[in-house]
Amino acid sequence: MFNTQTQNNDLVAENALLTDNRQQSYNADFMWDKLNLSQQYAVCTLGQFGYLLTYVRSVDDTFLAILKQNDKVATINVAGTINIKPAISCRQ
After folding, report:
1. Domain residues of the chain, as ranges?
2. For residue 8, which of 30, 23, 19 has the smallest C-alpha distance?
3. I want to staple 39 with a disulfide (CB 3.0 to 4.6 A). Which of 11, 16, 35, 61 is the partner?
4. Contact yes or no for 84/51 (Cβ under 8 A)
5. What is the pLDDT of residues 46-69, one digit of tens each?
6. Helices marked H in the chain — which ranges?
7. What's the angle, vertex CA 52, arms to CA 40 and CA 87, rounded to 5?
């Protein structure tokens, strides 16, 4: 299956502008269903290295998967491309 981080209410709604992501808590299946097959495969691949699916962000009409491993962050775009050094910062 896949790994997710579900502690501290770090999970976000697909449209962060409409809801406060700290007030919402979505389960792993909700996030997983937002990803396409390429992204799901990439999440599983990074999961083998200890990364956990933490957020799914809405970007335009697509979804961006954000994974964490300790202090490292990785993203997976709609094409399934993994970026292990994205130019983003995440709350602790």
Report:
1. 7-83
2. 23
3. 35
4. no
5. 999 999 999 899 988 899 999 999
6. 28-34, 37-47
7. 90
